[in-house]
Design goal:
The chain is an alpha/beta fold and 339 residues long. The protein has helices at residues 23-34, 62-74, 84-100, 107-126, 168-171, 183-192, 214-221, 304-309, and strands spanning 14-18, 38-45, 78-82, 131-133, 138-143, 146-151, 174-175, 229-232, 238-242, 269-274, 279-283, 293-295, 311-315, 324-331, 335-338. It has three domains: 12-212, Rossmann fold (3-Layer(aba) Sandwich); 227-288, Roll (SH3 type barrels); 293-338. It contains eight helices and 15 strands. A hairpin with an 8-residue loop joins strand 13 (311-315) and strand 14 (324-331). The relative contact order is 0.12.
């Protein structure tokens, strides 16, 4: 039986559960209901996927139906809110803008930062909720400076990487009942509870990209990202041409069309993208290594003095990468450097 640590007794605590239609949020909703809280399910319709939704998507089409079916089965009210326009502006347009700048965005981070947490928390407060529960695999623990975001118990399912932008104010109301569970436990519990989505496949890739072709979406929204340009080395020598920077990301090796090797036979990798010049800059793998990583939009949940003084931390450069030891130091303008 879960305990969300709310001030009011369970029977008098209203808890909104974000329901995407998948097994994780369905199990979270069932746990909240079973624990005796007044549970309310809310699903956001984020984009128009037509009458059916491709396998591995979320928050549209059949997923909304699945969320409602689970809510009915466990006996809680369920609301569907249309956030199509907000999602397009805050997530899809931002995604296309980032590619046009030569960046490689992670839309799940932006979605959690805006629509799923900022907007959904506002909805929860309007409904008089005491907490908002999601099915994310992450742990919320109370620390000396307030609520903290911790990695999930199951490292294979940890989603803290995608939730880095969650603020202390948001964490005060958020709860993550699956943070201490493995995915296999979640599915087993969902089956035990008789939830119809117990065996439903996990969502994959980018939910709003049909057929997995993100480049086609970016080309339609930001045509400048698909303009041809030169592939150059670090000295500016032209080695070939490309069909648009949207097709490349830093660290990429395949798809360069150069034979992918330098004159000395060493493989070539994308080192950086120059959107203004429409250039893809390539070089040997060793040139990808950096001693310092400069961060912007830093969200620091520990005491501010810790960041100013610098702190020894562990860092994940990608969601699936193992945590590595590093040191973080705050810099002016809300930025930081990691060494």
């Amino acid at each position: 039986m879960i305990d969300l640590g709310l001030a009011k007794p369970k029977g008098r605590s209203r808890v909104v559960v974000a329901m995407s239609g998948g097994v994780d949020s369905a199990t979270a909703a069932a746990l909240v209901k079973r624990a005796g809280y007044e549970a309310v399910g809310v699903t956001l319709r984020l984009y128009d996927a037509g009458p059916r939704t491709r396998a591995g998507a979320c928050c549209a089409g059949e997923d909304i139906y699945d969320a409602r079916r689970v809510a009915d089965a466990i006996g809680i009210p369920h609301y569907v809110l249309d956030y199509n326009e907000r999602f397009r502006k805050d997530v899809i347009d931002d995604f296309a803008d980032a590619y046009a700048r030569g960046e490689t965005p992670i839309p799940c981070v932006r979605c959690n930062q805006t629509v799923k947490f900022r907007d959904l928390l506002a909805v929860a407060r309007e409904l008089g909720a005491d907490a908002l529960v999601t099915g994310h695999y992450v742990r919320r623990l109370e620390g000396p400076s307030g609520p903290e975001l911790h990695r999930a118990q199951d490292p294979a399912r940890d989603q803290s990487y995608f939730l880095f932008a969650t603020t202390a104010d948001q964490l005060a109301m958020l709860r993550f009942p699956l943070g201490g569970m493995a995915k296999a436990e979640t599915r087993a519990l969902a089956a035990e509870l008789g939830l119809g989505v117990a065996a439903k496949p996990d969502s994959q890739d980018i939910c709003f990209v049909s057929g997995g072709s993100y480049a086609a979406l970016v080309e339609r929204l930001r045509p400048e990202a698909a303009q041809p340009g030169d592939i150059v080395d670090e000295m500016g020598r032209v080695l070939g041409t490309h069909r648009g920077i949207v097709h490349f990301t830093v660290g990429q090796r395949r798809g360069l069309g150069l034979g992918a090797t330098a004159a000395d036979g060493e493989p070539l990798f994308v080192l950086r993208l120059d959107a203004a010049r429409r250039q893809v800059v390539v070089g040997p793998k060793a040139r990808l290594a950096m001693r310092t990583v400069r961060l912007r939009d830093v969200n620091w949940l520990a005491a501010a003095a810790t960041l100013e003084a610098g702190a020894d931390v562990t860092v994940k450069l990608r969601s699936a990468s193992p945590p590595l030891p590093a040191r973080v130091q705050g810099t002016p303008g809300g930025a930081a450097e990691v060494t």
